[in-house]
Amino acid sequence: MLPALTAIFLCQLVGEAITVGAGLPLPGPVVGMVLLFAALVIRGKVPGSLAKVGDGLLSNLSLLFVPAGVGIMQHAARLEDEAFAVGGALLASTLLTIAVTAFVMSRFTPRHSGGQTHAASSKD
């Protein structure tokens, strides 16, 4: 378990070093996550210990949002002052996300002719 946690934190550290060193406008943990993903793709599988640690982190993911919630509560007055801008940004980003998701799904979803699915047509 300790080697898996070390690997996760090492990827985060390397990602942080890359973003700071290159001056990239990306969070270091995001770059680290991409590095970890690339390493797992190259390896071809996820080691059992890393999967176990990842599952443990995901099962407690809601706890990681507590600091963000506290930060929002501390800046509630500022959010009230900028409610229109924040609301507009949330609405615009939500609509953009839906549009991009629809576009990607339409491009990568296999098309079937005649309205039949492949499974239904193979039974004939």
Walk me through the structure.
The protein is mostly helical and 124 residues long. Helices cover 77% and strands 0% of the residues. The termini are far apart. It is built from 7 helices and no strands.
In a few lines, what is going on in this structure?
By secondary structure, this protein is mostly helical.
Question: Helices, strands, pairings?
Answer:
Elements: H1 2-22, H2 28-43, H3 48-59, H4 66-74, H5 76-81, H6 83-108, H7 118-122
Helix pairs in contact: 1-2
Task: Please count the helical segments.
Answer: 7
State the major sheet.
none
Query: What are the segments in which pLDDT stays under 50 over at least 5 consecutive residues?
Result: none
In N-to-C order, the SSE pattern is HHHHHHH
The tally of strands reads 0
- Beta-strand residue fraction: under 5%
State mean pLDDT (0 to 100 scale).
Answer: 87
Radius of gyration: 21 Å
**Helical content band:** over 70%
Q: Assign the structural class, choosing from mainly alpha, mainly beta, alpha/beta, alpha+beta, or little secondary structure.
A: mainly alpha
Key features of this structure:
124 residues, mainly alpha, 7 helices, extended
